[in-house]
Design brief:
12% helix, 12 strands, 4-stranded antiparallel β-sheet, mainly beta
């Protein structure tokens, strides 16, 4: 089974196909009208919709008042979904889920300890100061595609200490996290 007709959904029930590519500088909203773009970014509720090939089964991840973000894997077999940190069921650090094409849960992800040099430096600093304790030390905040060693892979953004992040390659089949491809302030 493959995913087809993957779309973002707005609070007003409008849907559009995002421009998902691994190319730096490409916008998810490249082919979306200005009005639809504003509707999507300015409203609290955002959802996802796709159809499973072969079965014509539609999957709709949508909750009123909740911003749900995600994209399919490059092979269109699964969808990586990021829920808000404070989501009632999928709360940080377990706020990312890999769904199969049919909408069933493949894996629930737990944000891993960061591995970047930046994260290690921040960790030492935070241990010394003990003055700042963010409510969610680790959480997922994004997912995208990148080109790595000639192939298109899925990368998830892992936030830590509120304002910092690193991006790690994700193996959607196993749920394992690979190398860090970037780190910095969010």
């Amino acid at each position: 089974m493959n995913i087809k007709d993957f779309q973002f959904e707005t609070e007003l029930g409008n849907r559009f196909i995002p421009n998902i590519t691994p190319n730096i500088g490409d916008s998810l909203f490249e082919y979306v009208s200005d009005d639809l773009y504003k509707e999507y970014v300015n409203k609290a509720t955002k959802g996802l919709f796709w159809v499973t090939s072969g079965s014509r089964r539609a999957v709709n991840l949508y909750e009123s008042g909740v911003s749900i973000f995600g994209i399919p894997t490059p092979d269109m077999q699964r969808v990586i979904v990021i829920y808000p940190m404070e989501h009632t069921l999928n709360r940080a650090p377990r706020n990312a889920i890999i769904y199969n094409a049919d909408g069933s849960v493949h894996r629930i992800l737990n944000a891993p300890e960061p591995i970047s040099d930046l994260a290690k430096t921040r960790s030492r600093f935070m241990a010394k100061t003990k003055a700042f304790n963010p409510p969610h030390r680790l959480y997922f905040h994004s997912v995208r595609w990148v080109k790595a060693e000639g192939e298109i892979v899925t990368v998830v953004g892992i936030g830590f200490d509120r304002d910092w992040q690193e991006e790690r390659i994700l193996n959607p089949e196993t749920g394992k996290f690979g190398e860090c491809v970037s780190s910095g302030m969010r």
